[in-house]
Amino acid sequence: MESRELARHWRYEELPGVDLLRARYVRKSFLRHTHEQFVIAAVVDGVEVFHHGGGDQYAGAGALALVNPDTPHTGRAGVPEGWRYGAVYPSSEVVGAIAAETTSLRGAVGFVRPVVDDPYAVGVVHQVLRAAEEGNALAADTLLRVVVTRLLWVNGGALPRRDVRSAGARNAGRAREVLEARMAAPPSLERLAGELGTSPFALLRAFREVHGMPPHAWLTNARVERARRLLEAGTAPAEAAVVVGFSDQSHLNRHFSRIVGVPPGAYQRERKNVQESA
Fold it and tell me: 124: which residues sit within 8 A by CB, 6+ positions away?
């Protein structure tokens, strides 16, 4: 495998609600983060290791790494030569519609196991990406439905419901609302806990339990997600960095690349190309 790192993160206008990625990473290390969409990552060379559900998961050649929306995970190379993969990121609406049409699953559906060995499905994911690159809308749409259906049949299930009942869980939800509203100038943990009428350590423990990461890590992820929306709307990366609370563009670049997989400038150029071709 080549040592040079390459990545393209883009959208195809004929696949609404789906992000696409081709990448080869060697030294890349993804921060603990979440996605609003599903992650269906098909590894063709090397090994990816990602922390998920309390332990490290390994996806080698011929395997898929599967992550449900809003599920914290990381990502790094599992072998010195890194890993090469392609990924599709369908929204919950896209997956839900496919599940309702082709399976008996209903409600909030997702993947049960985070790694599935399935060379055939890996090949279909890469066919989806190839069809999108070639502008073959019929093939891209058909093959996406084929691979999502297959994975739901072999590894699908109902997602557990999270009922916010305890005072700690309610405080974690309120803390998230505060951080979303004051993203550019968030309070300290002590001040935030005081505003919510709890202690810093109690809030930290509750936030971890509910959101899967401490407040500062969650805030970094939320800032990157909001920066994505701003970049898609045409905001310059330097301006987006300030709006979401990063100190400067280099600060945004570092975190954006370690969560999305590409720098914000490259991300925005791909979105601009889609808009111009639509």
Answer: 143, 146, 147, 150
